[in-house]
User: What shape does this take?
Amino acid sequence: MGPNDLTHKNHLARAYGLDSQAKTDAFYSDWAETYDAELVASGYATPGRCAAALKAHAPDLDIKVLDIGCGTGLSGSALHEAGFTNLSGSDVNPDMLARAERRGVYRTVWQADPEAPFPFDTGTYDAITAIGVIGRGAAPISVLEGALSKLAPGGLCVFSFNDHTLEDPSFEAAVTAESDAGRFAIGFKEHGPHIPAKGLEATVYVLKRL
Assistant: This one.
């Protein structure tokens, strides 16, 4: 694969303009082959930042972690490298998910239904991560709200909002609402590198169920 093959379709620049599930599915299936190479070449920092944030707040590294929107498993690899040993991954795209499974860092992977993405009982997982998943042109805030509803007291949620998403105040407002209602404590919030090659940053959050 030559250097021009990684970005000849300019996937990264087009990722924030998707406006339907059908377009999103087709787009990520098309991108699956070069997704890792393009993001790594662009300095994708958010998975490592999220993994470090979870490690700083988790009671131990053996907790059960569900990595939603796991894509090809870049996020799972970052969690694995941070020392987490009990990882599961889910994604709506089968082509991305197949690559995640081959990565070998997840104990289980399963394809999520966009209409019902959380087919498990509250408290099944000790932590849920949504790394680069929620935002404009990606999963709606309702996905984050659904993930939060599946955590038992003490459960952790780690997620990120990139700069494009932060331009819409409704996303941060939803996080603030969870805190103000006394359902979650914001244990960590830090703005920093997301995709340095594109000049993009992101805020990483850790929420703990009260």
Q: What stands out?
A: The mean pLDDT is 87. The first strand starts at residue 64 and ends at 68. The chain has nine helices and seven strands.
